[in-house]
Write a structure and sequence with these properties.
The protein is mainly beta. It has two helices and 26 strands.
Length: 288
């Protein structure tokens, strides 16, 4: 790892399984020789490690122009239009629900969510029995929830740029979603969330990867926002102003939980949250 690389650690308090956010922020200059680093006050947060090896592929790669298929509108005013390898999802309502037969984005394909504003949310559920693979572009001016109990893989060519993203194997009911109660339940799901690509949230936005096993070997950025990597039987996300992820409440998982970071997780001026259960299993992170 380069000597000039900076590691930033955000202080996080744990109380009764709920993560609350501390105003204290520190920056530590990385030195691979000295065991006691120098600490400097700042307003940035980073966990970073060198990328070593890739994630073994356990399912077939989608065609380069593959797009999500079989959309059924569950709620909201939504219009979907495909032009070649590009899919437009236009949502006029603040909330929308789409149930997809599959949600794969090939390397040469792109999906764009056009929503009323950054506070609008689209819940996307995947109904088939295969993991979702995002190898192309996924963009949104609002927030996107992608739920697939079989897992979600963001490949090395993936480029995600959204106001907010929840990628999870945990389920969320229509009633809870419409009521703004973001209580995700594992419901026996055992899929993984793996990122090898680039995932970016808009200024003050958030990225939340929730699953029994979460692995990052790519880059996740949320400037002045929040990044959450969490594993548990139930995970509740709490928001301020319908966009800022302020806290996360985790119920301990009944199966093995793992959070692994071998890439970069950057939240300049923001927050990084790890689930209490999985924090002990963190590998390659700057929080140790």
């Amino acid at each position: 790892m380069n000597k000039s690389l900076l590691k930033y650690i955000k202080t996080i308090h744990i109380s009764l399984g709920q993560w609350t956010l501390s105003p204290l922020v520190k920056r530590t200059r990385y030195n691979p020789v000295k065991s006691k680093p120098k600490t400097i006050a700042t307003a940035t947060c980073l966990i970073c490690a060198s990328l070593s090896g890739g994630v073994p592929r356990i399912y077939a790669e989608p065609a380069p122009e593959q797009l999500p298929e079989g959309a059924q509108i569950g709620a909201g005013e939504i219009h979907i239009q495909q032009q070649g390898a590009h899919l437009d999802v236009q949502q006029q309502s603040q909330q929308g629900i789409i149930n997809w037969q599959s949600f794969d984005v090939g390397e040469a394909a792109s999906v764009e969510f056009k929503q009323p504003d950054s506070q609008a949310v689209t819940l996307n559920r995947v109904l088939n029995s295969q993991p979702s693979e995002i190898l192309g572009k996924l963009t949104a001016n609002g927030q996107v929830f992608l739920v697939n109990p079989n897992g979600i893989y963001f490949g090395k060519s993936a480029n995600v740029d959204v106001a907010g993203l929840v990628a999870t194997t945990h389920s969320l009911s229509d009633a809870d979603f419409k009521a703004g109660q973001f209580q995700f339940q594992r419901n026996d799901a055992q899929g993984k969330i793996i990122n090898e690509g680039n995932i970016r949230a808009a200024l003050g936005g958030y990225i939340a990867l929730l699953a029994p096993e979460v692995r990052n070997q790519g880059v996740i950025i949320a400037q002045m926002g929040t990044i959450a990597l969490a594993s548990g039987e139930a995970i509740k996300l709490q928001f301020e102003n319908q966009q800022h992820l302020s806290a996360i409440e985790v119920t301990p998982s009944q199966i093995k939980a793992l959070i692994e970071n071998k890439g970069a997780v950057l939240a300049p001026g923001g927050l990084i949250i790890l689930s209490a259960k999985a924090a002990d299993a963190l590998q390659g992170g700057g929080g140790q």
